[in-house]
Amino acid sequence: MKLWQAIKMAFKAIASNKMRAFLTMLGIIIGVLSVTVLIAIGQGSTVQITERITALGTNIITVQNRAVRQVRLELKDLESLRGKGAVNCVAPLITSSMTLKAGTNTYTAQVQGTTEGYDIIRGYGIQRGRFITASDVHGRSYVCVVGVTVADELFGQRNVVGEKIRINGMQYSIVGLFEEMGTDVGASQDECVAIPFTNAQRSFRNTAITTFYANAYGEEYVDQAVKTLEAFMLDKTGNEEYYAVTSQTQLLESMAEVSNTLSLMLGGIAAISLLVGGIGIMNIMLVSVSERTREIGIRKAIGARRTDIMMQFIIEAIVLSVFGGLVGILLAWFSCTTIAPRIGVAMVMSSQVAFLALLFSVFIGVLFGSYPAAKASRLLPIDALRYE
Amino acid sequence: MSLIKLTGITKRYRMGDETVFALDHVSMAVEPSEFVAIVGPSGSGKSTLMNIIGCLDAPDEGEYILDGENVSALPDRELAILRNRKIGFVFQHFNLLGKLSAFENVELPLIYQGVRSASRKEMVTEVMEKVGLTARLKHRPNQLSGGQQQRVAIARALVTRPSLILADEPTGNLDSKSGREVMDTFHHLHKMGNTILLITHNNRIAAEAQRMLSIQDGKVTCPEDYLSMEREAERRQTSGTDKEVRGA
Ligand SMILES: Nc1ncnc2c1ncn2[C@@H]1O[C@H](COP(=O)(O)OP(=O)(O)O)[C@@H](O)[C@H]1O
Ligand SMILES: [Mg+2]
Prior knowledge:
The structure holds two protein chains of two kinds.
Chain A: H1 3-15, H2 18-55, E1 61-65, H3 75-81, E2 87-92, E3 94-102, E4 105-114, H4 118-122, E5 126-129, H5 134-138, E6 143-146, H6 148-155, E7 164-167, E8 170-178, E9 192-196, H7 197-204, E10 211-216, H8 222-237, E11 243-247, H9 248-291, H10 293-301, H11 306-343, H12 351-378, H13 381-386
Parallel strand pairs in A: 4-9, 6-8
Antiparallel strand pairs in A: 1-10, 1-11, 2-10, 3-4, 3-7, 5-8, 6-9, 7-8
Helix pairs in contact in A: 1-11, 2-9, 2-11, 2-12, 9-11, 9-12, 11-12
Chain B: E1 4-15, E2 18-30, E3 35-39, H1 46-53, E4 61-66, E5 69-70, H2 76-86, E6 87-90, H3 102-113, H4 117-130, H5 146-158, E7 164-168, H6 176-191, E8 195-200, H7 203-206, E9 211-216, E10 219-221, H8 226-238
Parallel strand pairs in B: 3-8, 3-9, 6-7, 7-8
Antiparallel strand pairs in B: 1-2, 1-4, 4-5, 9-10
Helix pairs in contact in B: 3-4, 3-5, 4-5, 5-6
């Protein structure tokens, strides 16, 4: 018998008992739907995390000195790093929460002590005025750059370049205003004030550099710059435990890995339901074989071979599972495109996952269809014909 | 050469401690183009014999040669092909597939043979004409009368042009008028050169055959009233048909 005939026969058999076919497929539908949707949710959150991190810029390298007591980093150490290898800008950062005053207004903000280049590394734009310069740092100038919220709170307006504010009792001139960032990427620069690093050291009574930032000449040199910085820190501290150099890309990768593992786990759990769906198919197929024993006998009497009967039942199982799989994928696609945005869940459905789920359901069909099919094909024609 | 040659065919069934001989060393032969009837009471082993001749069942002992081929030695796959090409079955209970139309039922053996769709259509149409059911091609079995269903079954048996047509009480489930139609179809087929082996417990129907064998408790014999049967056959012959009458 030709394959095409066997497929037509399977469709006829399925069409002749639609309700049962639907109930059989239901297990596969739910299985494929849950696998696809859960993985889509997992991937959706991966994409979301990645987007957030990428928005912060990927050309950022963070260096931490974990052994402040043993190893001191000086500003001139960092200056020596600038332009070394692939390293472009280098800037230290020390922060402290302080109360700012302007006239009678007060506002508590995060004060950041840093050097020139910090704005470049972090990608902060300056909408008015300028950022801190090298001569501000060396001359210990009392200048500051403020975020928009600081300006709004202290002055009620944003035309603040040239105004004076008091930080920790000292008077600073505002020389620049950061661009507004909004709040959707975590801690925002809108609520911060940047002052020259040398002033901050004095003002915070803290001279140790525990963290500094750097960037590479381009995205593609980040790994190279990381190596340069690691070599520098190893040379400085003499112990790999004493420092950590992390690029944003590494952070991105490890976050994505965690999230991928999570979505695979979710998918794996859902795959169990697909397996249960397969057992459902086997169950129905076994019932169908014993219901159709006489039919099998008749087919054998008029010349069906073992392989013909085997094929008929296996194809029936495969058609059921593929149909169920397709319906499941369709429903999953509907949930991703229509339901997910309405309930505010990030879902990314990949065609690979859909294809794999479909492949898996075919596999289930073959796996769980084989036994009933083999059972049907092994019936002796006379026994099958006599079956009541 | 005989079309069918059985030698010492035995089939036993074990019922508890007792052994029932459904067939007890049966030896017989059927020649090509013969119309043979096998009569016997219920439980005498008619169906068992028929199933063995039709390769649906295997004997416990004995040799069965069909068309020069030793069937007992054939593997499952070859038997299926043999059933498909050489044997046409007509059952008492019709055994049509209820979900298929008359056309599809008749087409089925050809599908298993791998015949292409266009030729299938041609062959089915031709054979349906022969049994006079051209107007019922799309009907399901449950939309047909018993006689019509049996004619569909006969068409299904004929469509592969088998060398042997086996009919197990084909009129057993039919009223006399439908039974008559079916028997007429068999006579027609015989006239066209088909070999027919007909099983029945009805002596009147058996008498219509060219030759009659009787089976009793699994043993095949020539019936005592064979001579009267022969006379009957001669009577039929003089009334128009031109048939050779054979001795057992
Ligand atoms: N599958 C079976 N199991 C046990 N006994 C059987 C089986 N098939 C047939 N028989 C026995 O074999 C004998 C012949 O049966 P069968 O060939 O069906 O008779 P008939 O067709 O002449 O009525 C009967 O006694 C019947 O009980
Ligand atoms: Mg019988």
